[in-house]
Amino acid sequence: MRRVPRLFTSLVSCSGAVALALASVGAPGQQGPEPTAAGAVEMPDTPAGKIFAHWLAAFNGADRAGLEAIRGAFAPGAVAPPADAALALRERSGGFEVRKIEESNERRLVVLMQARGEGNFVRTSVELDPEGRILSMPLRVTERPPEFAIARLGDPALAAELGHQLEAMEREGTFSGAVLVLQDGQPVFNRAYGFADRERQRTNRTDGKFRIGSMGKMFTSTAVVQLIQAGKIKLSDPLSKFLPDYPNAEVANVTIEQLLTHTGGTGDIFTPEFFERASTIDTLADYIALFGDRAPAFVPGSRYQYSNYGYVLLGRVIEVASGESYYDYLQRHLFDLAGMTSTGFWRESQPLEGRVVGYEPGPNGLTITEGTRTDRASPAGGAISSLEDLARFARALLDHKLLDAKHTDLLFTGRVEMGPNMKYALGFGDTAQGTPLHWVGHNGAAPGQNGVLQIYPEAGYTLVVLSNFGPPTAQRVADFIGARLGG
């Protein structure tokens, strides 16, 4: 579960934040990657309307020259080249369709739009100065208005519509991966699309071994809560209880709960220093040698900020508290207990039958993303798993094979506000995400990999989407399904 951005700045000033927002774990209230059917909305014949119409045409057409021309004519004071940010957003969103003109006068225009790809609704307000130049044009992700509600479907209709959607995405080259939907343990949908290895023309399979990115945080947090259940860890324990020689004294006082909820200020691992040394990082202690002197980014406990390094530290805590390596502990106490035979931390240098190759779009088409990571995944993410194994993990949690009922509730119950209807629990998101169906789960996103697990405890659904394209590929599909479940 990535950060959920709330407010996004102007494309005129070249912020990439909207692109990140639309690629993130579904922003609050977003439901489905497919714009709803609607007639063409006529743009007002005003200065603001005309400028925005020109910008939108250039944006949707991925027209760099057109975007730069509009910038030069109407936003000459902006800093940094906005075309790069706009084109990155165009790549992620698929472009925008205007759904409604909410306000219009000569110098102001408020427009409700929907992304063609993710289906997110976005509101922009164009403000002109007296000379007709753009003062601001912020884009903000907003909840789906009731007038554009999506009908909920019964399972057979959902399977049919999802099949049509994924076939279209496969033809367009916007989805490659596998999708599983279960209802009370019975498959509603279970299919694979695209290529697991394009060079060898090996197609994706429903039992393929996909890299799952930060979805692995669910494994780490489950292991920590197992050790809490065993009396070996407390949420209130400081890191120093397990790592008494930790270099930075402020981080040493960060609690286990703060590490689990991304409120410890422990920061990221994906820094220039990391990429310089990634090939030499082999143990969890290597991460601490690299980042252990770093001070907290803010007062621990004062706010939420997604932290991959915090989960690496939790991995070391697991090792100390259990007396086992992180990898051995997860194998014995999670994967073996849940029957997860296709899940593990195989090294990148180790041959593995069925491993799916990751791809990212580039100037010359799709490129392989191998070699952009450490040789072995970490407690922050990067493990390998499959549709069925992640469903087995969900089932083992719901059946209390991994934790008793009390500690499963501890794991799943949201603690930190992330947005409307969305909280972060202990390594799981806890959210209704703008829908009447409550779910818990996490996503994972990195170049050449994107995955989602959503567990609907009350409704009985389990949703797994794994892709060997980068974000937001799998999230688009998960949003499409989540918007239609439960009819």
Structural class: alpha+beta
Number of helices: 15
Tell me the overall shape: globular
Low-confidence stretches: 1-38
User: What is the number of E strands?
Assistant: 19
The average pLDDT score comes to 88
Oligomer: single chain
**CATH class category name of the largest domain:** Alpha Beta
The CATH homologous superfamily of the largest domain is named DD-peptidase/beta-lactamase superfamily
Largest sheet: 8 strands, antiparallel
CATH architecture of the largest domain: 3-Layer(aba) Sandwich
What name is given to the CATH topology of the largest domain? Beta-lactamase
**First-residue to last-residue Cα separation:** 26 Å
Adjacency order of strands in the biggest sheet: 7-6-19-18-17-16-15-14
The whole-angstrom Rg is 23 Å
Helix content: 25-40%
Number of self-contained structural domains: 3
Strand content: 15-25%
Descriptive report:
The structure is a single chain. This protein is of the alpha+beta class and 487 residues long. It has three domains: 17-148, Nuclear Transport Factor 2, Chain: A (Roll), CATH 3.10.450.50; 155-215 and 352-482, Beta-lactamase, CATH 3.40.710.10; 218-327, DD-peptidase/beta-lactamase superfamily (Beta-lactamase, 3-Layer(aba) Sandwich), CATH 3.40.710.10. It has helices at 17-23, 47-60, 64-74, 82-93, 155-172, 217-229, 249-252, 256-260, 272-277, 284-291, 308-322, 326-338, 387-398, 405-412, 473-482, and strands at 96-105, 108-115, 121-128, 134-136, 139-142, 177-183, 186-193, 195-197, 202-203, 210-211, 359-362, 365-368, 384-385, 416-419, 422-424, 429-431, 439-446, 449-456, 461-467. Strand 15 and strand 16 form a beta hairpin. The protein is globular.
